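Example 3.2
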Amino acid sequence: MGICMLNALWQNMIHSYREVMHTMEHILTQEHLSAYCIELEEREKAVATLQKYRYALQDFLTFTAGEAVAKSLVLAYKQMLCRRYAASTVNGRLAAVNGLLEFLGWHECRVHPLRVQRMEYRDPRRELTREEYGRLLQATHKHSRLYLMLESLCATGIRVSELRFITVESLHTGHTEVHNKGKSRIILLPFKLCALLKQYCRRCGRRTGSVFVTRSGQPLDRSNIWHMMKRLADKAGVDRRKVYPHNLRHLFARTFYRVEHDLDHLAALLGHSSINTTRIYTRTGMNAYRGQIERMHLIL
């Protein structure tokens, strides 16, 4: 056997040994996840973001099943996600996992997110229409907590995590100050909404604090609201895929833009730092694009 071949074998043995020794250190534990979540809290990540990351990381920990984390394992996890979820969900999970790997110093194990071509139109299967919004309201008891909660989300365009900032005190000023994602901004409350919420608070005997609370007096959280809306979707006969809090924010944005055509003002109302983010909310529906190509009359 030649010297060159022996040298190549020796290098391969060293490389294999290093890989084995390196992966021996990469056994993911619950303690790793807890430490990373504490890091995220100290970086003042939003509560909703923390919840998503915790869920994604717990799922990844279950997937590893005690096996040493290597890039091949993370790629296998990515492939599993691709078989089960939409691209946006896959990339969200991978962002959480890559962040954890970066935090642990396991840089070589990170994987690339999926490359997704930007859609210039909205998917009608996920677009909540004004008519469907009306059906959701009709399926509730008028001026009940759920009815008013839906109107509050849709009439202001706030994020579901910001609902707790609508307080009894804010109803008297017609606006509230929201602190979210490391930013502070003012949310305007329509006067008609304020009047309805004041009546609701008087009926409930609520004199201070958040308007929408649980039986124990704690502000409703994303999970509470999500489950209430899914049950309401079934009752109203609206596709469950369309009924979730953030879709009311999209309906607000589309309605505002259709009336005002002011992208800068809409960005301010939504609390967006980049107007490019706001453009996502004002995309034209697929049927409008279809109408445009049909009018070209190129089928002879």
